[in-house]
């Protein structure tokens, strides 16, 4: 019995020591999972990196495009600011006081033979205007040259079309005799060197020029004496003046002295200095209308803010209506409807035209009125029903 127990115990111990016995009793291997192979993982990582790189490039292109747009907007803004500055400088250069600085009064040397010419030159110096003594294409004349602002196309200096031809009384009487001979078809008797012949040749060459004859030293008694001694009648003088006006577009003014001539030359100079600004303000453009941006217009908010400046700018579109006049009208009548109602309440057409005439206008230190001319034009502008009506 003891030997049998020992034998069975030894058998159990042998089984424990035998490895084959353990293998036969171990659990079966687990089933294979869905884990990808290293090659697949590498391909997936490569695709992911490629996608991230593509997204990064797209973002970079978007940032670059946005940067280019911003640079372009800045350049456009700079160009717009430069254009506005040039336009503002050009507008300032057209002001009368600036035009006077660039205006030169040119006097023909022939006029210096008369002692009274010192009065003319002295007056020009007293006004601190530029003047020059140079030979003119039309003898006995005074002309005006004006320098253009920098940046203007074409010539840097232009000659105004206004010309003042200065004649003494005896020279004018000789011209009347030449005109009388021409009217009587005695053209051969007109000397080639006569002043009228020179005037005609000049106007034939320069058709756009406007010549004014200034006759100095002319009083009614002197004129009567000269006509009687020259065998001229009053009718001859009248016919000659009409002939000059119609055939040569030349007018005649009679002046007592060289001082009167100097005053007239100053008046012409001032008038010429105002012309560029008037031509600029009488352009048919409508600056109160918006053209692509608010730079040249007036922004109107939803609550109506900005309508008053628009109304004021609209009034300025009429010729020779300054911002000060437009401000006076828009202050008295803040909207077109109020002005239209005032026109309806007027008793007569005359009252309508004069509603704005007495409005006070403040321009610098000077006080003035709107005046009947502008008042009448504004009335026609708002009340007329004829689309072909000429307001000015």
From TrEMBL:
Q: Tell me which domain of life the UniProt entry assigns to the organism this sequence originates from.
A: Eukaryota
Q: Where is the composition biased (Basic and acidic residues)?
A: 47-79
Q: Which residues form the ERCC4 domain?
A: 104-344
Q: Where is this region: Disordered?
A: 1-88
Q: What is its main location?
A: nucleus
Query: Bias category Polar residues: which stretches?
Result: 1-11
Keywords, A to Z, come to: DNA damage, DNA recombination, DNA repair, Nucleus
Q: Which InterPro entries match?
A: EME1/EME2_C, EME1_nucdom_sub1, Eme1_nucdom_sub2, ERCC4_domain, Mms4/EME1/EME2, XPF_nuclease_EME2
* UniProt feature, compositional bias: Low complexity: 24-37
GO molecular function annotation? crossover junction DNA endonuclease activity; DNA binding
Q: Which Gene3D superfamilies does the entry mention? A: Crossover junction endonuclease EME1, DNA-binding domain, ERCC4, Mus81-Eme1 complex, nuclease domain, subdomain 1, ERCC4, Mus81-Eme1 complex, nuclease domain, subdomain 2
**Name of a matching Pfam family:** ERCC4
One GO CC annotation, please? Answer: nucleus
- Cellular compartment(s): Nucleus
Biological process, per Gene Ontology: double-strand break repair; mitotic intra-S DNA damage checkpoint signaling; replication fork processing; resolution of meiotic recombination intermediates
Q: Which family does it belong to?
A: Belongs to the EME1/MMS4 family.
In Swiss-Prot or TrEMBL terms, this protein is called Essential meiotic structure-specific endonuclease subunit 2
Q: Which organism is it from?
A: Paramormyrops kingsleyae
């Amino acid at each position: 019995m003891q030997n049998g127990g020992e034998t069975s115990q030894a058998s159990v111990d042998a089984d424990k020591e035998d490895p084959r016995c353990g293998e036969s009793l171990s659990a079966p291997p687990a089933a294979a999972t869905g884990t990808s192979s290293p090659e697949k993982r590498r391909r997936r990582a490569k695709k992911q990196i490629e996608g991230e790189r593509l997204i990064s490039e797209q973002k970079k292109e978007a940032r670059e495009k946005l940067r280019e747009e911003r640079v372009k907007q800045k350049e456009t803004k700079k160009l717009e600011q430069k254009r506005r500055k040039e336009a503002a400088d050009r507008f300032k250069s057209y002001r009368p006081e600036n035009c006077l600085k660039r205006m030169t009064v040119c006097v023909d040397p022939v006029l210096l033979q008369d002692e009274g010419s010192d009065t003319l030159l002295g007056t020009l110096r007293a006004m601190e205007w530029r003047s020059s003594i140079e030979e003119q294409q039309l003898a006995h004349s005074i002309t005006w040259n004006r320098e253009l602002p920098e940046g203007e196309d074409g010539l840097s200096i232009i000659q105004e079309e206004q010309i003042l031809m200065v004649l003494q009384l005896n020279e004018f009487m000789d011209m009347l005799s030449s005109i009388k001979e021409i009217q009587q078809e005695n053209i051969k008797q007109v000397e080639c060197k006569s002043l009228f012949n020179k005037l005609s040749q000049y106007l034939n060459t320069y058709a756009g020029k406007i010549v004014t004859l200034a006759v100095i030293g002319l009083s009614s008694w002197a004129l009567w004496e000269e006509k009687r001694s020259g065998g001229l009648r009053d009718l001859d003088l009248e016919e000659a003046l009409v002939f000059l006006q119609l055939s040569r577009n030349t007018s005649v003014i009679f002046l007592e002295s060289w001082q009167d001539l100097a005053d007239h030359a100053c008046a012409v100079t001032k008038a010429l200095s105002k012309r560029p600004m008037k031509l600029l303000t009488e352009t048919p453009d409508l600056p109160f209308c918006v053209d692509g941006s608010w730079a040249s217009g007036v922004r109107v908010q939803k609550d109506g803010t900005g309508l008053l400046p628009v109304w004021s700018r609209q009034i300025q579109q009429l010729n020779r209506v300054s911002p000060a006049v437009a401000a006076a009208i828009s202050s008295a009548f803040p909207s077109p409807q109020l002005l239209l109602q005032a026109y309806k309440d007027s008793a007569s057409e005359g009252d309508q035209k004069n509603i704005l005439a007495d409005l006070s206008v403040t321009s610098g230190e000077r006080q003035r009125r709107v005046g009947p001319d502008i008042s009448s034009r504004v009335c026609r502008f708002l009340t007329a029903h004829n689309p072909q009506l000429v307001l000015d």
